[in-house]
Amino acid sequence: MLRYLPFLLVLALWIYAFIDCLNTPEEEVRGLPKVVWVIIILLFGEVLVGPVAWLVAGRNRRGQAGGSTPSEWHRNHRTQFVAPDDNPEFLNSLKAENRKDESLLKDWEADLRRREEELKRREEQSRSDEES
Fold first, then answer.
1. Buried (b) or exposed (e) across 1-18, using 16+ Cβ within 10 A?
2. Helix (H, G, I), strand (E, B), or coil: what is residue 63?
3. Which of 58, 75, 80, 86 is the most buried (most CB within 10 A)?
4. Helices assigned H by DSSP within the chain
5. pTM higher than 0.70 for the full model?
6. What is the mean pLDDT of residues 74-102?
7. Which residue in 62, 47, 55 sits closest to 18, CA to CA?
8. 3-class SS at 61?
């Protein structure tokens, strides 16, 4: 099993570099056009030249100027977890849903009663027609 490990590592690096190159915006690619980098990664991937060249020289790895990384944004915008029982918006939405469901149920019950009465009338009418 250990004899396959180097091949798997090379394959993993090859796949990582290929996907990273495809997902990198064109303006962040250095040196060569993105299409050329993809070809280099695919052609020289087995000997690690293509993926290593992409990781070292192909992509601009500096952070965005004037922006913050996602982790910085999350650190500054922490949300407090509120249990559903304590969340007034959630409770109000449950009440509104409950009201809607109750009105729908009442409509169905009224429709069912109307149909039952109509069936009874038809049965009575058919009995009276048979008797006559």
1. eeeeeeeeeeeebbeebb
2. coil
3. 58
4. 5-23, 34-43, 49-53, 70-76, 88-131
5. no
6. 84
7. 55
8. coil
Residue with the bigger pLDDT between 72 and 33: it is 33
pLDDT tens digits, one per residue of 53-82 = 988 888 776 655 555 566 666 666 666 777
Place of tokens 């962040």: 28
Beta-carbon contacts of 38 under 8 Å, excluding residues fewer than 6 positions away, are 18, 21, 22
The position carrying tokens 């180097």 is 6
- Which pair of structure tokens corresponds to residue 2? 């250990």
Q: How far apart are CA 53 and CA 40, in angstroms?
A: 9
The single-letter code of the amino acid at 48 is L
Strand partners, 29: 59
Contact 84, 90 (CB under 8 A): yes
Place of tokens 């509120």: 82
Residue 56 and residue 92: Cα distance in Å, rounded? Answer: 55
Distance between CA 62 and CA 75 in Å, rounded? 20
